[in-house]
Amino acid sequence: MQTEIANFTFYNPVKIIFGKDQIEQLPELISKDKKILITYGGGSVIRFGTLDRVKEALSGYTFGEFGGIEANPTFETCMRAVDVIKKEGYDYLLAVGGGSVIDGTKFIAAAAKFAGDPIDIFASGVGKGLPIEDAIPLGTILTLPATGSEMNETSVITIKEKQAKISFKHEKVYPVFSILEPELTYTLPKRQLANGITDSFVHIIEQYLTYPVGGMVQDRFSEGLLQTLIEIGPEVVDEDNHDYTLRANYMWTATMALNRILSRGVPGDWAAHGLGHEITVLNHTDHARTLSAILPALMDIRRTEKHDKLIQYAERVWHIHEGSDEEKVDAAIEQTASFLRSIGMPVTLQEIDVKKSDIDFLVGQLEKHNNTAISERGDQTLEVSRRIYERALAKDYASN
Ligand code: NZQ
Ligand code: ZN
């Protein structure tokens, strides 16, 4: 266990272009000689006019389109894009969409340049985890603030054939640039807004709620971002509230939540994500809804290991100063669950259709993907994960 801030490198090359009417800047960002493949999802960018704006900004460029990247993007769909690239010779990718389109495009960028079978880009019992040597450069236009994918080097892909939802990470798939127009969030339905607030919230928690090593900058940044989400969350999920400042703060918080600035030199715990991904494999629940259903139970079951940080979280984020340590921890867990429920998120596994009989499958999946010693201490065994799933099924922490 580390006792002080570990050595670290901080490198984030993504150019962020933030504000109103920024899509028009595309010609400043991509050189004219590039042959661009625009990638997108199930059609929201067509319905709401974003794709037309992109095409207009790219007049004079040579470009093609690849639509249909689904939520929780699949290896199978992405490989169809790789075929198109190989046939038609694109040398720049432009992802227009949420985390799924961006993640899918990162994988496509790496797979199109990969010498062997692209399944081997993945490790964790799925492929051989071979190194990526090169990737097609990509830019993004973000339409759903949630994942942070627009400013990080991670991609999460579902391999249907192997019943796996798995990530890879590589510097070569950092976007060259990401355009963040808060006004693009105005078309998001409440469910996706709540998902976005929640995914960002849990990203911050997973980099913060571990054990203290004296990372004052990381801690205060995390606490500030958590408080911002708590403050704006209930207003952001009102889909009719198109206040620019509100949506701008939502968008920037989501990006800052997972661009590596919070995690440098401090321990991290991606257990809620690990447990959550297997629920999405089981029944296709939205990513963020798996996290909110797991988080309160995880905090409770891991209260001893996370004790010091839970107290810090209670005091600094929720302003809980009364009571014994254990009472503060209880109150912080309850406040977290109540906040999530207040923005319309599930906080128990029943609410996302997980049954007791599914837990064996979920734990088996964790084992298959080598998630047998997870968390900031590497001491979250399968038995502990099972207890978290069971508790998330049995107890509603927002009901007090
Ligand atoms: O597909 P379209 O038609 O575009 O519709 C999407 C989709 O149905 C819709 N949408 C997006 N922007 C919209 C919009 N609807 C109206 N107006 C807009 N402006 O929203 C739906 C969900 O989109 P999706 O991209 O799937 O959501 P999200 O951004 O939450 O991404 C989730 C994926 O990202 C992964 C998750 O596991 C999941 O696969 N993650 C990626 C991470 C990363 N790269 O660092 C970290 C995260 O922890 C996460 O695991
Ligand atoms: Zn997430």
Fold and architecture overview:
44% of the residues lie in helices and 10% in strands. The chain is α/β, with parallel strands linked by helices. The strands form 2 sheets. The chain has a 6-stranded parallel sheet, with helices on one face. It has a two-stranded antiparallel sheet with strand order 6-7. β6 and β7 (164-169) form a beta hairpin. α6 (190-208) packs antiparallel against α7, α9 (271-283) crosses α10 and α11 (307-316) crosses α12 (325-342). It binds 5,6-dihydroxy-NADP and zinc ion.
Outline:
This protein is an alpha/beta fold and 400 residues long. It has helices at residues 26-29, 44-47, 50-57, 75-88, 99-111, 190-208, 216-236, 244-257, 271-283, 287-301, 307-316, 325-342, 359-368, 382-394, and strands at 15-18, 35-40, 62-66, 92-97, 138-142, 154-159, 164-169, 177-180.
- The proportion of residues forming helix, as a percent range, comes to 40-55%
Domain count: 2
Order of strands, widest sheet: 1-8-5-4-2-3
The average pLDDT value, as a whole number, equals 97
Give the N-terminus to C-terminus distance in angstroms.
Answer: 35 Å
Beta-strand portion reads 5-15%
Q: Please give the CATH architecture of the largest domain.
A: Up-down Bundle
Number of strands: 8
Q: What structural class results from the helix and strand content?
A: alpha/beta
What is the CA-based Rg, rounded? 21 Å
Tell me about the biggest sheet?
6 strands, parallel
Going by CATH, the homologous superfamily of the largest domain would be Dehydroquinate synthase-like - alpha domain
SSE order, one letter for each helix or strand: EHEHHEHEHEEEEHHHHHHHHH
Outline the low-pLDDT stretches.
none
- How many helix segments? 14
C-alpha geometry: globular
CATH C-level of the largest domain: Mainly Alpha
Small-molecule binders here are: 5,6-dihydroxy-NADP, zinc ion
